[in-house]
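Subject: two folds for Thursday's group meeting

Dear M.,

Sorry for the delay on this. The cluster queue was jammed most of the week, so I only got both jobs back this morning. I'm pasting them in the order they finished. Each block is the input sequence followed by the predicted C-alpha cells. Could you check whether the formatting survives your parser before we put anything on slides? The first protein is the one we discussed after the seminar.
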Amino acid sequence: MVDIGEAQKNRLAQRLAMASHNREDSGQLLEATARALQSGEDGSASQLEALVHAFENERVIVPIRVEEDPRVTGIHAGEAGHDPVGFLRVETVAGPAIAAFTSAQSLGAYDPNARPMALSFRRLALAALVESAGKVIVDPSSRDILIPRSATSALAQGDHWLPAWKDQELRDLLFRQAQDECSSIIDLSVEYAGMGVCRVSLVIDPQAVEEADRAQLRERVLHTIDVLNSNKRLRAVADDIQWVPRWGTLAG
C-alpha cells in the first residue's frame, strides 16, 4: 500500500515557494528578521519599519493546507488549480488579516499541528491585497505585528515602503491644507499609533480662544479634519487615521 502521508511530504517539499530554493532553510528565524524584531518594542514604528525592510528579501512561514487522501477526492493539491497553500486569516482590531510567521517555531507555538511552508513575503503580500484588504499579521497571539496595506502594497510591487509618518512632503502638504482652512492651527505631526493606525495631531494656538468663540473654533477645526481626512495622498498611505487636536505653542 502506498504511504500517502510520505507522498504528501514529498510533493509539498517540491512546491516550497522560496526564491532561493535554499535547502538549508529549516524554517529558522532569519538574520534580518531577527534584527528587526529586536529593533523596538512589539508593534512599535521602529520595529515595523525594520521588519518591512527585512521582508523585502527574506521569507516568512505560513501554514500549509493538509491534502486530503487523493484516493478519496481524486485530486492532488496543486493540480487543477488546487493551491496547497491555505492562507490563515485572523481577526484583529484592524479587521481580518492574513497570518504570517517569522519561523516554524513561531507557527508551532500558534498551532502545533500546522505544517510549515516557506513563502516569499511578496507572494504573501499579493494574496493579502486580494483576501484581507492588504493587512498581514505577523506572529499572531505572540508579537501581533500588523503590516498595513501601504506596506504590503509596496512589497507586492517590489518597491521600498515609505511610512506616512516618515513622509515629510505629506506632512507639509497636510499642514498647508490645514492652515488654509483654519489659521489657528500652528503645527501638525504624523505619528504611528500602533496596529496600523496613523495619528495626526493638530496643534492649536491657545490665543485663538481670545479672538473667536470656542464653539466657532471647534467647528472650524472639525471642518479642517473633514477636509484633511479626504486627502487622497493621505488615504493612499493610511488605512486608519486618528485625529488629535490639542492646544500648544511652537517651540522657541
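Second protein, same layout:
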Amino acid sequence: MARRRGLSTTAIHHGCAEGDDIIPPIYQTAIFKHPNGKQIRGRDLKYSREDNPTVNLLERKMAALESGEDCLAFSSGMAAISTLLLSLTRQGDTIVTSKEVYGASLILMRSLEKFGIRVKCVLNDKLEGEIGSETKLVFVESITNPTLNVPDIKGIAEACRRNGATLVVDNTFATPINFRPIEAGAKYVVHSATKYLGGHNDAIAGVLIGPKEGIDNAWEWRRNLGGSLDPFAAYLVIRGLKTLKLRVEEQNRKAQLIAEFLEQHQKVKKVHYPGLESSPNHERAKELMRGFGGVVSFELENMESAMRFLGGLKLIKTAPSLGGAETLVTHPVSSSHKNISPEERRELGITDGLVRLSVGLEDTEDLIADLEEALAAA
C-alpha cells in the first residue's frame, strides 16, 4: 500500500504529471482545438466554461486535500453551493439546515421554497432531531459564522446515513488542514476558496468536493449555469495552496494567543473561540479538529462600544472577508447580519457589541498592541 503524502506535499505536488513544469502554466484561453467532436469531462477540451487544464489541476489538488473522489472549481463559493443544491434537489424534497450558516447560503436555500422545496432551519443543536426519512439534504458549516459554534458533524452524518440523506459541509472556516468532513461522514464539502485556500485576498473562487458520480452531475449543471472558474483565478488559488498548511497553522497559533488575551481584558464581556477551554464548543472541536481556526469573535458592551473599538484600530482593517494575510475585523450587526431581525439575532447569539476578528499573518505582538489601544477607546 502506497504511503499517503502529507498535506503540504499534496498541496504542492498532487495532480502534476511527470515531466510537467515546476510552475503550472495558465491556460488563458476560451477555446481549444476540438477535432473529434466528443465531449467527455476532463478529456475532450473544447471551451473553458466546461473545462480548462489550469482549473482541472486545482480540482485534482482539492479532491486530494479533502479526501474526496472528485472536485469542481467555481467562480465563487456561492456558485459552488447553488450549483450543488440545484443538482441534488427537486420539487417535493426537504432540506434541513442550520440558522447559523452564512447569510447568503441561508437566503439561497430559502429561495428554493418557491420551486416546491421545503427548507427547515434550526439551531445546530436541534439539527439531528429534524433529520427524517423525508430529508433529502442537510447543509451545515464545520465552524459557524460569526459565533464559531461547532456542530456535531459525526452525529449529524450518522443521522443522515440512517435516513438516506446527503450531508453537505461548508468547510471554509476550518480548511482541510484543521478538519476533513468527508472523513467524518459528509458526502460533499464546499469552500469559499476566496478565503484560506487562496489566502491572499486577490482571487474569488469556490470548490465542491464529493463522489465522482455526483460531481459529474454537478459539472453538467455548472456548464449550463455558467459558474466556471477562470484560469487566472485558478492559478492564484493553486499558488495559495502551496503555503496553506503553513498559513493555517500560524493563524491557528496567533488566534489562540489573541483569544486568550481578549478573554482576560476587562472591556471584553465574552470571547467565542473553540480553542478556549471556556468555550462550550471546546471538547467537540478538540475531538473533531486538528486546529481551531484563525477567526475569533468577542463581545463588547454595546453597539457604541463596538463602533469606538473599530474607530480606534490602526493596523487592523475593517473588511468583510477572512483567511488572508491581513488581519480584518467586521461588526456583524451592521454588516453581514443587518437584515436579520433583532429577535433572530438574539437567538443566534449575535449581540450589538459582537465583533469578528479574522487573524492574519502579522506579528502577534503588533496585533495585540493594536487591539489593546482600540479597546481602551471602546
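Two things I noticed about the second structure. DSSP finds 14 helices and twelve strands in the chain. The CA atoms of residues 342 and 351 lie 9 Å apart.

Cheers,
T.
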